[in-house]
Amino acid sequence: MDLLIALLPALFWGSVVLINVLVGGGPYNQIRGTTLGALIVGIILLLTGHASFEPKVIIVGLISGAFWALGQGYQLRSVQLIGVSKTMPISTGMQLVGTTLFSAVFLGEWSTSTQVMLGIFAMILLVAGIALTSLKAKHETSEGSKSLGRAIPILLISTVGYVVYVVIAQIFGVNGLDALFFQSIGMAIGGFLLSVNHQTSKRYTIRNIIPGVVWAIGNLFLFFSQPKVGVATSFSFSQLLVIVSTLGGIFLLKERKDKRQLIGIGLGIILIVAASFVLGGLKA
User: Fold this and answer.
1) CB burial class (10 A; 0-12, 13-18, 19+) of residue 252?
2) Are 25 and 84 in contact (CB under 8 A)?
């Protein structure tokens, strides 16, 4: 049962971008609605007494939440350009590379030669996995190649947002559950700032509250599972979101792929998931 609970964050997080696309509205409606959904869950946590008002927790929560909004908002812009099934493996791989490098270089998490060797091996797997999921269709038009070229810088900005969101709590030793309320406020502020200069629809913003609530529930399951199965296992399992989102993009959203791309995506996902389990072991 504990392992099943540990798998729930991947299911919930992997579903978020799929629900965003299904309810529609474009990236700016999506990020505004998603962050409002997360804020609703944050307020519920506040009302149930799960919030810390320590100044450090407040500041870290606000900053990490705002950077999460940056990461999510630019990820959704990439989805608009190249689809879910191509965006999510690349985005997940980039996030793992970014957080791993930061943890290794600045937080000194790779303290032994074995950790360094395994870490480098995992990075190679990640880069190979990203490359495989980015394969062009056999008869892909120049417009398709241009779309991928435009998406990569967007995903790099998204990665910066996600990496800061993840590592800032580590740097300052802040418990994620304590900071979640102020994190949700930071998300809502970030979502508003990203969308304020763009036309949005109230109807689509309201619809996109649903994926925000789904994301926040997945976050709660992660915090709940960590004491049960350990941080390493919960981290590794959470990265399985790439399977949910990528396969959902292909089969649920009907994103067209040729045989070569399907093989590349399948192999790429296997490498990215394998790398996440290697990195999860290094965090043990």
Assistant:
1) middle
2) no
